[in-house]
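Thread: zinc ion complex, take 2
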Amino acid sequence: MHLSAHTHYQAELDAGRFCIQHCPQCHQHVFTPRELCPHCGASPLRWVRASGLGTVYSSTTIARKEDVGGNYNVALIDLDEGVRMMSRVEGVAPVGVRIGQRVQAHVAQKDGRGLVLFQPAVQGGVA
Ligand SMILES: [Zn+2]
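Output below.
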């Protein structure tokens, strides 16, 4: 059975694994999941475990009422593999997320689906 790239990505997350794609032809990492390499058009792409380490590229605080969880942040994270993804940095106040901050991914489970979230990296300092 052939799963679409996005379905495969979500299935890995549901099993607690954060995977991205790697192109065997031009050796670049690929995210978001797709069928063809966006750089050179090669197919199929290989699945590899992401290191989970990245750097905050931008962060926006979204206002939300306290009774539904309070403010949260939406961040663009540059993974060390060279791809950018949208996620959320937790474990720090939304306004405390800094551009250039080193972060570490983990897979959270919400309503039975895996989800990539980030928290400040313990080691690695500022990129
Ligand atoms: Zn390629």
